[in-house]
Design goal:
This protein is α+β, with helices and mostly antiparallel strands. It has two domains: 2-159, no CATH class; 171-194 and 227-354, Nucleotidyltransferase, domain 5 (2-Layer Sandwich), CATH 3.30.420. 44% of the residues lie in helices and 20% in strands. The protein contains eleven helices and 14 strands. A seven-stranded antiparallel β-sheet has the order 2-6-7-1-5-4-3. A five-stranded mixed β-sheet has the order 10-9-8-11-12. The longest helix has 28 residues, at 13-40. It starts with a strand and ends in a 24-residue tail after the last helix.
Length: 378
């Protein structure tokens, strides 16, 4: 499986200026290629290379390989959407390959091509954590140069070996929600109280600063940008890590609801729209899925319909089983529990049915067959 290692570059002020110039010139070349692609109706990167390589090479001052990477960037952008003309920001990320970027992991530093006239090849140190340094040992060819918040980063694509999924002895059902970010079938609750508190505080602060319309208020808004998102992302990383570690330790699979396109299906009052739109269940689901792959844990996605309305004791399904958001009371048999915990139990049972049948080992020395991972897209 492919993972991305993010590294922080530590350039000198002169190197930082050269890197910004490189980004600006490369993205200007991408915009020129995009104009040709839109006018000629040619969108493939190889067709664009035959059409405008010489023009871009002579007019941009970029190296041959950097021009090739710019052509590939435009081609990849039009592969996603050919219905509108694509444009690129001056400081948008650009891709480097092994011909224009080399690594020195002992120092650590990178040597990459720039538009500096006297010395195009610049050696720049970087800082990274222990996990990122280990990932770099399995890096692939392409690395992206990213400029964000006044700092430069390298995003290196790495290939990590996937372990064979182990034979699951059960399933942990996980119910994803708004009031509780995640509740598992073992009765563990991950509340959204901390995330909601941060979001409400930032929302009030943004509203207050936007009303002021002063330079200092704009500076403060710029400084706050992304802070709420980073906090929510860190929370999702922590929760997904706990879920996967629990499943790995107890030799169980993980069952999740397939919540794709749920925002199109759910109607919400005006007061609830901001909270629902900031619900990052898709991010949490993707974190659980890729961490589970690395640990050999199988993830199964189930139909979410009536998971919180079905009684796990008698199977009765009714809206009346949910008298409130947090309470589940079966009108048929009287079973009562927390609604999210009940949904997690139902998800666990549905996922257990969906696990593939495995032949039993002939004797104690036979190695069990591994469960294949789910084929549903993220």
């Amino acid at each position: 499986m492919k993972l991305v290692a993010q590294l922080k570059l530590c350039p000198t002020p002169e190197q930082a200026r050269v890197l910004k110039d490189t980004l600006e010139r490369a993205n200007a070349a991408c915009n020129r290629v995009s104009e040709v692609a839109w006018e000629q109706g040619v969108f493939g990167k190889y067709a664009l290379q035959r059409l405008c390589y010489r023009e871009v090479k002579s007019g941009s001052g970029l190296s041959a390989q950097m021009v090739v990477r710019c052509l590939a960037k435009v081609g990849d952008a039009y592969r996603l959407d050919k219905r509108r003309k694509r444009s690129f920001k001056p400081h948008g990320s650009i891709a480097y390959d092994e011909r224009i970027l080399s690594w020195n992991l002992k120092e650590p530093s990178v040597s990459l091509w720039t538009v500096a006239p006297d010395k195009p090849r610049q050696s720049i140190p970087f800082v990274a954590g222990e996990r990122q340094m280990k990932l770099l040992e399995t890096r692939l060819g392409q690395t992206d140069l990213l400029y964000r918040g006044g700092r430069f980063y390298l995003l290196a694509t790495c290939e990590v070996e996937e372990p064979e999924p182990f034979v699951a002895e059960g399933v942990i059902g996980v119910d994803l929600g708004v009031n509780n970010i995640a509740v598992d079938s073992d009765g563990n609750f991950r509340s959204s109280r901390a995330v909601d508190s941060v979001r409400h505080r930032h929302r009030r602060l943004r509203r207050k600063l936007q009303k002021k319309r002063t330079h200092s208020a704009r500076r403060r808004l710029k400084k706050l940008a992304g802070k709420e998102r980073r906090f929510a992302r860190d929370t999702n990383h922590v929760i997904s890590k706990e879920m996967v570690e629990l499943a790995e330790r107890t030799k169980r699979a993980i069952g999740l609801e397939d919540l794709r396109h749920i925002r199109k299906r759910v109607r919400a009052r005006r007061q609830q729209r901001a909270r629902l739109s900031s619900w990052s269940f898709g991010q949490l689901r993707s974190f659980i899925a890729y961490k589970a792959k690395r640990a050999g844990v199988t993830v199964v996605f189930v139909d979410p319909r009536n998971t919180s309305r079905e009684c796990p004791e008698c199977g009765h399904v009714s809206k009346s089983n949910r008298p409130s958001q947090a309470v589940f009371e079966c009108v048929a048999c009287g079973y009562a529990a927390h609604a999210d915990s009940t949904a997690a139990v139902n998800i666990s049972r549905r996922a257990a049915v969906m696990l593939p049948n495995l032949p039993e080992a002939n004797d104690a020395t036979d190695a069990p067959l591994a469960l294949p991972g789910t084929s549903l897209p993220l």
